[in-house]
Amino acid sequence: MASDSYNRPVRILITGANGQVGRELVSQAGADTFFEVVGLTRRQLDITHEQDIARRLDEYRPDYVINCAAFNRADAAEKQRQHCFRLNAEAVQRLGRACAERNIPLLHLSTDYVFDGHYASGYSENDAVRPLGAYGESKWQGEELLRRTHPRHIILRVSWVFSGGGHNFLIRSLEQARRDTELAAVDDRRGCPTAAADVARVLVAILKQLSCGADAWGTYHYCGAEVTTRYAFCEAIIATASQYEALKVERLVPVSSKDFPTEAERPATSVLKCKKLLSTFGIRQRPWRNELVDVIRHHYERF
Ligand SMILES: NC(=O)c1ccc[n+]([C@@H]2O[C@H](COP(=O)([O-])OP(=O)(O)OC[C@H]3O[C@@H](n4cnc5c(N)ncnc54)[C@H](OP(=O)(O)O)[C@@H]3O)[C@@H](O)[C@H]2O)c1
Questions:
Q1: Domain interval for residue 120
Q2: How do residues 71-85 score in pLDDT, each as one tens digit?
Q3: How far is the CA of 72 from the centre of ligand 1 (A)?
Q4: What is the CATH number of the domain that holds 114?
Q5: Is there a domain that residue 120 lies in?
Q6: Is 130 part of a structural domain of the chain?
Q7: Considering only CA atoms, which residue is closest to atom 21 of ligand 1?
Q8: Are 286 and 202 in contact (CB under 8 A)?
Q9: Which pLDDT tens digit goes with each residue over 52-69?
């Protein structure tokens, strides 16, 4: 940050501001006087357009850019490979280059899907990647292009992001539980659900420390505490939502991922180890079960 900027809030520009993490970040950072927030939706800044990026960066002159824009649908990515790579890889490189040219640090989100899921004990930042599908591959390529383009970056890999809106496992499970008496969920895929609000909390904490001079660029992992399965996560969603609404579902059936074919192969165990984030920034994992209670309460308060 320039020396004349110490007496004013830290200006952050958030791309993909209408997504799960984008919305939470705009809301949390926006409520904090430490920050001045510019949240841009896809309509306001399409990150696949190089000229739009340059125009917005020069218009707002942010101290930091946080990229929450992505093509996130793993199955759709198999059929829309080109679009997926254009957004998750090429656009990230363009954004990185534009930020580097203006000396603006870039915080970027990535995913557990860069791993193949064969390490039952979980993955550290230095473990070898081997994405199983187009989505994971495009996110890995985006990471690598950013590393080469802009040294002052943070890549935060997160997993199983959920919130009370948008497209995610929680919303899909709730919709099905309202419609059907029986619901099936995979019980041989393990991971850590992470509330979008919790990801936003972590980004805010990182941004504050960077703004205070922390020189800690690089790649980090974050996910909610407690490893679980899709089945157990779904069970927790239904149990919590049942306190607010009489759901139609009567039975939750555990199924093997083999009996639940999807377009994209998914990692069997995508647990992210979060020690580096703790030792560098002092940021602890929060239990996803607590976050889930808050998310579902807010979800019902809104409707
Ligand atoms: N969701 C997960 O389970 C998960 C897991 C691991 C990692 N992540 C990573 O976490 C990050 C945030 O995920 P999320 O769940 O918040 O995603 P999300 O809800 O799908 O939000 C992505 C946002 O990007 C916007 N977008 C799409 N194309 C764009 C473009 N060309 N220019 C600008 N914005 C564009 C979308 O706009 P519209 O609203 O107009 O579509 C959407 O608002 C992503 O990097 C993702 O890869 C997510």
A1: 3-163+192-226+271-287
A2: 999 889 999 999 999
A3: 6
A4: 3.40.50.720
A5: yes
A6: yes
A7: 19
A8: no
A9: 999 999 999 999 999 999
